[in-house]
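Q: I'm building a small set of examples for a reading group on sequence design. Run inverse folding on the following structure and report the sequence directly after it, with nothing in between.
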């Protein structure tokens, strides 16, 4: 046959304009998920020195936030990479460097809970916004709409939840 039908068991990304369209392991996506998740594990060892306050966040917002977090950890690794757009890689790396710098600010600044939610310039909750930007950049870099959907769900939950927590921690200080 002349290739008019895709072969079984694999996704023909060319049929979808180079966008990822199926399930399959992505090494780039796995590396992104680990790179974003790794600094969060610091909280297991370097807990806030002033404790973690209990803040009431709507169960719906919490559910959306957790769903977005789970999707962003899984979708990059288990969905096929489309046509790689290398010029998006510097955008991802810039936001990753910014995210790591914000974690450095928390660690060096005395590990105060407020530092996890403290604004940077005019950006209200940069530690919530940078992961969203990283996953949107990853979606563009790997031409993967599933990662973009995961990033949108993350944005819909993580940013509002972080704004609520930031407001509470500002009132508490």
């Amino acid at each position: 046959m002349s290739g008019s039908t895709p072969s079984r068991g694999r996704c023909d990304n060319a049929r979808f304009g180079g966008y990822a369209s199926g399930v399959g392991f992505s090494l780039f996506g796995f590396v992104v998920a680990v790179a974003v998740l790794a600094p969060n594990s610091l909280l297991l060892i370097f807990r806030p020195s002033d404790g973690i306050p209990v803040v009431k966040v709507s169960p719906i917002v919490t559910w959306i936030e957790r769903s977005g977090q789970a999707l962003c950890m899984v979708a990059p690794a288990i969905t096929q990479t489309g046509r790689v757009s290398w010029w998006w890689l510097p955008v991802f790396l810039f936001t990753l460097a910014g995210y790591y710098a914000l974690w450095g600010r928390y660690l060096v600044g005395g590990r105060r809970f407020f530092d996890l939610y403290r604004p940077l310039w005019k950006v209200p909750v940069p530690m919530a916004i940078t992961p969203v930007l990283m996953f949107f950049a990853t979606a563009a870099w790997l031409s993967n709409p599933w990662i973009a959907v995961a990033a949108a769900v993350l944005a819909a939950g993580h940013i509002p939840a972080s704004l609520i927590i930031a407001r509470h921690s500002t009132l508490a200080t």
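The chain has six helices and no strands.
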